[in-house]
């Protein structure tokens, strides 16, 4: 997308995430299966769907929050493992989840003070992160039950999710009709396609919140993972993790990942930005700002040989190093998710953009179309 004037283009709002998976060899029957995943406290039925391609790559997705609960990819020896943090059951996702695997909307990341002004009118949002609005509010897209429909083509299986975010939901203006379709192709790609339209001017910044551990979910921390980010600049934050409005160079700071570096190498440096976040939880201003698809980041795990490249049309990427994981959450297969056991690379427009006129705009108006694409490509060395 063009991150310039309004970051908007013609057509239905589409946000595409493509995760390229390595073929594990052999041949398996392509298909999608469905099983019961429980009920919400208000009695809504929740299902979970398993997408399998002809190469044996698998992704599991539930219609609660559009959550991707697992993603299985091979290591350098062809051994398959699930690289996503998450839970085995619905109740845990409902009870307490730091957005494991979830679809995020209407606004990914933080909006300072829980308010913004659009066309001269101030909108007050739910505050769920101290004084801030975070990831869509108290009941964001990650906590609603989406309508789900299996879909299939000759070379892909998918899951189509639809949801109407009503005018006033969590304080946002406008009815926002959203369609999200996950596709797992026989080219070993997992695609997530977001479409939405609004009937009133609003703000929108959609993303997806997978927590990755390329050693396998629960298999230690991510401090030895090696990270590269194609960003010369970042947006520093205040003590509430809200951008100050500045855009500053990464050179000479712990945020310089222009050359590959271990995540743990500088994560405890005596730096005010590191202290504010307890590690990394910052937006990087990507070097590519023309809206074309470009390499944004690369992360690899020396132990397993798994690696992941991130391509995006978005102007920013949030690198989060799992600072708030503290061992209190028990995930899949009884694993304790301790400090920095997972990392997030969330492609996005910048945090608090509705209150920062110099940041790329996130305003979406009736009749306008917004389109972003992100590709997470997995391979093994």
Structural class based on helices, strands and sheet pairing = mainly beta
CATH architecture: Distorted Sandwich
Q: What's the rounded overall pLDDT mean?
A: 91
Total beta-strand segments? 28
**Number of separate helices:** 2
Unreliable segments (pLDDT under 50, ≥5 consecutive)?
Answer: 1-26
Strand order of the largest sheet: 12-13-14-15-1-28-24-23-18-21
In the CATH hierarchy, the third-tier topology is known as Beta-galactosidase, Chain A, domain 5
Backbone shape: globular
Please identify the top-level CATH class. Mainly Beta
What is the strand content? 35-45%
Structural features, described:
The chain is mainly beta and 381 residues long. The protein has one domain: Beta-galactosidase, Chain A, domain 5 (Distorted Sandwich). The protein contains two helices and 28 strands. The protein has helices at 90-95, 272-277, and strands at 13-20, 31-39, 45-52, 58-62, 68-74, 80-82, 102-104, 110-111, 115-118, 121-124, 133-134, 147-153, 156-165, 176-185, 189-198, 202-203, 207-209, 226-229, 233-235, 248-249, 261-262, 281-285, 294-300, 306-312, 316-320, 344-348, 363-364, 371-380. The strands form seven sheets. Strands 12-13-14-15-1-28-24-23-18-21 form a ten-stranded mixed β-sheet, with no helix packed on it. The protein is globular, with a radius of gyration of 19 Å. It starts with 12 loop residues before the first strand and ends with a strand. Mean pLDDT is 91; it is low at 1-26.
Q: Which short descriptors sum up this protein?
A:
Beta-galactosidase, Chain A, domain 5; 381 residues; mainly beta; globular; 28 strands; disordered N terminus; 5-stranded antiparallel sheet; 3% helix; 10-stranded mixed sheet
């Amino acid at each position: 997308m063009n991150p310039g004037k309004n970051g908007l283009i013609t057509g239905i709002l589409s946000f595409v995430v493509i995760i390229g998976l390595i073929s594990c060899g052999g041949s398996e029957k392509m298909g999608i299966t469905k099983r019961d995943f429980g009920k919400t406290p208000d009695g809504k039925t929740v299902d979970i769907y398993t997408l399998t391609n002809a190469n044996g790559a698998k992704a599991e997705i539930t219609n609660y929050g559009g959550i991707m609960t697992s993603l299985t990819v091979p290591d350098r020896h062809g051994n398959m493992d699930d690289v996503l943090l998450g839970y085995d059951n619905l109740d845990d996702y409902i009870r307490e989840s730091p957005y494991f695997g979830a679809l995020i909307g209407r606004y990914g990341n933080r909006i300072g003070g829980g308010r913004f002004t659009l066309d001269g009118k101030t909108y007050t949002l739910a505050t769920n992160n101290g004084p801030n609005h975070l990831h869509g509010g108290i009941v964001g897209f990650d906590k609603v039950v989406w309508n789900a429909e299996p879909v299939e083509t000759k070379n892909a299986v998918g899951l189509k999710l639809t949801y109407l975010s009503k005018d006033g939901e969590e304080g946002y203006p406008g009815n926002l009709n959203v369609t999200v379709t996950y596709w797992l192709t026989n080219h070993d790609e997992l695609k997530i396609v977001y479409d939405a339209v609004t009937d009133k001017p609003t703000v929108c910044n959609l993303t997806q919140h997978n927590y990755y551990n390329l050693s396998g979910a629960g298999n230690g921390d991510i401090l030895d993972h090696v990270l590269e980010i194609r960003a010369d600049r970042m947006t520093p934050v205040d003590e509430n993790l809200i951008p100050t409005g500045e855009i500053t160079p990464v050179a000479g700071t712990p945020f310089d990942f222009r050359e590959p570096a271990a995540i743990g190498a500088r994560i405890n440096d005596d730096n005010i930005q590191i202290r504010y976040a307890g590690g990394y939880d910052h937006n990087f201003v990507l070097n590519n700002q023309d809206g074309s698809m470009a390499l944004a980041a690369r992360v690899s795990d020396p132990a397993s040989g798994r690696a992941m490249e991130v391509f995006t049309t978005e102007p920013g990427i949030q690198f989060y190093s799992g600072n708030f994981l503290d061992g209190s959450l028990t995930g899949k297969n009884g694993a304790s998710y301790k400090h920095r056991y997972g990392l997030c690379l969330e492609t996005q427009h910048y945090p608090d953009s509705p209150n920062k006129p110099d940041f790329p705009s996130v305003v979406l108006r009736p009749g306008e179309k917004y389109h972003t694409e992100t590709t997470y490509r997995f391979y093994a060395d």
